[in-house]
Design a protein that fits this description.
single chain, alpha/beta, Rossmann fold, Coagulation Factor XIII, Chain A, domain 1, 2 domains
Amino acid sequence: MMEAVEPATAYEELEPAIELHGISKSFRLYHDVNYTLKERIINWRKRGYDLFWALRDIDLVVPKGRTLSIIGPNGSGKSTLLRLMTRIMSPNTGTITTHGSIAALLELGAGFHPDLTGRENIYLNGSVLGFRRRDLEVLLPEIVEFSELGPFIDNQVKNYSSGMYVRLGFSIAINLNPDILLIDEVLAVGDEAFQTKCLNRLSKMQQEGKTIVLVTHNTDIAAAFSNRVLWLEKGRMKMLGDPKEVADAYRVAMRVSPVGSEFGTREASITSLDIIDGEGKPSMEFRTGDAMTLRVGYEAKRRIEDPVFGFGIYNQMGLMVYGTNTRLRGINIPFIEGKGRVDFHTPALPMLDGRYHVSAAIHTRDEMTNYHWMDKMYYFDVTSPGEDAGFLIMDCRIDIIDQ
């Protein structure tokens, strides 16, 4: 993935692929909805509306061959901005200039005719972008192969799942070899394996000098994949610049307690989970390399033979960063009864910047019975002093040798 960050001055001096100057876009929010023809005739003079400004005063230049990620909360104008770039919408004020062919992957089903098959929709999408049928026939095998739809390519797309829509739409967009690729949040719908496949293809397109604009809620992808990140807030540009700086600022602004879940027989229950720092104090703020203890309090209503205690730490995408339990560590607990606690000590946290969610569990050795499982109901934040990328810190020595 792209990790190089260019100075703002150098970035602005590059040849532009997309230019937006003074862009504002509003929509009408009507007070009353008239469902019948009679209501429309009677109320045609009475119906009022308010103007909702989805975007205000956007000035933005995306240079050729660079990747911009757009982040922000729901309703901040991210998708509207992408639609303006595709010319699906027109702004109320301002000008938009694009240099090169554009392919866009917007909301699910956009650009598809539901009654046509996947194969027919490939020809339909290609013709809209100016491709001749014989050119599309050359590209067709690669599009189908990348989408992994196989025999489903000749089914009507109205019978496709959301994941199949994404596979087909992404395969068409990237294989038509556009100069500019615009992608909305739809990649979040696909399965993990296909997301990885898509990101690898996008990395290849970056190396080929393509311009990419990506709308995403995933700050980790935005920070690792882009040359610059734009943070939109209530239709305005909140922050634009270094991917890591913008992503970190956005994480801080958007921090909320996780909404987890719990389940189990409750024959033995987790009564508390405390996250303790190196000084023995409860904390939710750590730095890479700090000591941390997860203190799991429990109560067993009856004698529980051979229980297993464990925990897991997950990143913001829900992927496990680390997990262990007493069985994996070779620690046998003959039984528990009444109240007690289990402390998991970590002498030095290896995680890099981000919010990490914690799960804790008590279960049988064969994992067939969960006495109590608290799934991602706690969290802590890690900040890193270095400039490493990814999730974990590693020792790395760099030698430069002249030949």
